[in-house]
Design goal:
This protein is α/β, with parallel strands linked by helices. It has ten helices and 13 strands. Strands 1-13-12-10-11 form a five-stranded mixed sheet, with helices on both faces.
């Protein structure tokens, strides 16, 4: 059942950002960008085309508990692609059970002559996306904390010689907007309502700006689909230092209060998260405690629209 809350007004606070550390990494493997039929150099140096059936796909997600991971597995099974498709995770038991380098090696054994990595992430501007850039050889430096997290999962760069292309994350994908609009309409389709799209968010101020630029476009599309009176977006910056997160939550709460005051109705809140789990069910619910909201905490997966988005990324879109 949706959560319905009451509220009290507090001041709107500004956001700050933490400093970051960097660590040197090793050399990069073969890597490229482009269409699903990736070019590949043979022993003579000539260019060959990799057919779709020879293109392996890694759907790479953050990772969580069994229920969270199962949602990623479910959408992977719905992807229509003639080549081999596999799932890998950056953290948790799924990362240790099938680390990225082992998944790439398995795809090669299954006939893949090139690999595309599709990040099951909300944004291409985060520490986790930087992990993928390093794993695929796009960059040779990685923040020390993010490198440490990879090490905890036993994850490293593949030893394979197959070309690897890293696709973009969801960012401002229209498929995400359609799913979010559907989640909101399931709460209440009445166009006089206000909707807040609530995301996890990054640590740094620069990445925050990139997230918001993309998600504002998503919010505009959601409003066009639903006709809601107000559609806003904000991020809780869940992994940022405590003062940054505290200020982010204060801003979220003030936005909800303003939307409720304008409409005279409880505000619909939909999480911009990949999968439903502890963040959506527990942490976000606690952040919204006492506010006039309607909230269920259902995330993006495993909606078919996300499988279609994966197919577009495989095709190089």
């Amino acid at each position: 059942m949706p959560i319905r809350r009451t509220f009290h007004l507090t001041a709107l606070l500004s956001l700050t950002a933490p400093a970051v550390l960097s660590a040197q990494a090793g050399t990069a493997p073969a890597h490229g960008h482009g269409d699903s039929a990736l070019p590949r150099a043979d022993a003579t140096g000539s260019r060959q085309t990799v057919a779709p059936a020879e293109l392996g796909v890694v759907i790479l997600a953050h990772g969580g508990g069994p229920d969270w991971n199962a949602q990623v597995d479910s959408v992977a099974r719905a992807v229509r692609h003639p080549g081999p498709v596999a799932v890998s995770f950056l953290m948790g038991p799924g990362a240790k059970a099938a680390p990225f380098q082992a998944v790439v090696a398995d795809l090669e054994r299954r006939g893949a002559r090139a690999v595309v990595v599709v990040p099951m992430l909300v944004s291409s501007h985060s520490g986790h996306y930087e992990q993928l850039r390093w794993l695929t050889g796009e960059v040779d430096t990685l923040e020390a904390v993010m490198a440490h997290h990879l090490g905890l999962g036993g994850i490293t760069r593949p030893g394979s010689a197959v070309p690897i292309r890293l696709a973009r994350a969801l960012d401002d994908a229209p498929e995400m907007a359609r799913v979010l609009a559907g989640r909101a309409r399931a709460l209440d389709p009445e166009p006089t309502r206000a909707l807040l799209l609530l995301g996890h968010g990054p640590n740094s101020a620069g990445d925050y700006a990139e997230w918001m630029a993309n998600l504002r476009r998503v919010a505009e599309e959601v409003r066009a689909i639903t006709g809601y009176r107000s559609v806003l977006v904000e991020l809780v910056r869940d992994d940022a230092p405590a003062p940054v997160r505290t200020e982010a939550i204060a801003r979220v709460r003030d936005l909800v209060r303003l939307q409720a005051e304008v409409t005279g109705k409880d505000v619909l809140v939909v999480p911009v998260l990949v999968a439903t789990g502890q963040v959506s069910r527990v942490r976000f619910a606690a952040d919204l405690e006492g506010l006039p909201v309607v909230y269920r905490g259902e995330a993006l997966l495993p909606e078919p629209d996300i499988a279609r988005w994966i197919e577009r990324r495989i095709a190089g879109e």
